[in-house]
Design brief:
Layout lengths: L1 E8 L16 H13 L6 E2 L8 E10 L7 H11 L4 E9 L11 E9 L12 E2 L6 H9 L3 E4 L14 E10 L4 E8 L6 H14 L6 H5 L18 E7 L1
Parallel strand pairs: 3-10, 5-6
Antiparallel strand pairs: 1-3, 1-4, 2-3, 5-9, 5-10, 7-8, 8-9
Length: 244
């Protein structure tokens, strides 16, 4: 039986989603508790990796369990009792045996939060407290340059990609103007650090460090790969949903 699950987590205390040999991760914690529940080793497969400090409202994963019947409500209840307070299971459902949480995904939605408050005890872990305000209209214009299908080789630290780093961003919506910005990305998929690089570079354009036209050059298929140095902090990033 293959189960698709929906999980939320606060990533502050974790080294990201994917299991690592010498650091605590979300995948490890969930796998350990599932294995205890079923009294056998359970491996889960996530819809995507989130980096250290990144949060999720709508991360998805699937796993297989060799049972004929399963009380899903009881499983969700028990797991949430077993898991730490910063990880929760929101939903589970049985899916077809060939369904894959990552490979079957059609698009993903991420959100990035920026606050211009000097200090905020409530937003510190889940929002980038930007120390210096930038010109928001220019920031928005810079982000618009990334919408569409482009080669994002300069906006990811990924070493190689079977699609030659080409991804399509369907939309980037910015809400807010004065003290708080919410930026929502929707696209086919996002590579390692991709959103954080995009946010960081758009901020630097808004600060006047780079010309807005430089974005088009960096997105060109013909340009030599030169990974940018601008990267926004992980704590402002949130995986909102995976769409199938």
């Amino acid at each position: 039986m293959r189960i698709l699950a929906l999980t939320k987590y606060k990533g502050t205390q974790y080294a990201g989603w994917q299991r690592q040999p010498n650091a605590l991760t979300i995948q490890q914690v969930i796998e350990e508790q599932l294995s205890k529940y079923f009294n056998r080793e359970i491996t889960i497969y996530g819809a995507g990796r989130t980096d250290a400090g990144v949060h999720a409202l709508g991360q998805r994963f699937h796993f297989d369990v060799d049972v004929d019947e399963l009380d899903i409500d009881r499983l969700i209840y028990s797991l949430n009792k077993m898991l730490p307070d910063d990880i929760s299971i929101e939903d589970m459902e049985e899916v077809e045996p060939d369904f894959h949480a990552r490979l079957s995904a059609k698009s993903k939605i991420y959100n990035y939060l920026i606050s211009f408050e000097a200090k905020s005890p409530f937003f510190y872990d889940t929002c980038y407290l930007c120390p210096k305000k930038f010109y928001v209209p220019t920031f928005k214009s810079a982000l618009e340059r990334f919408v569409g299908k482009h080669n994002f080789k300069n906006f990811t630290s990924k070493e190689e990609d079977k699609d030659n780093f080409v991804r399509e961003i369907y939309s980037i919506d910015v809400v807010g103007e004065e003290e708080f910005l919410s930026i929502t990305f929707r696209g086919t998929g996002f590579m390692r650090y991709m959103i954080r690089f995009i946010i960081g570079y758009a901020m630097d354009v808004a600060y006047g460090k780079y010309d807005i036209e430089s974005i088009d050059e960096l997105l060109s298929d013909d340009s030599e790969r030169h990974i940018i140095a601008s990267k926004a902090p992980s704590r402002g990033l949130l995986l909102v949903a995976v769409e199938y």
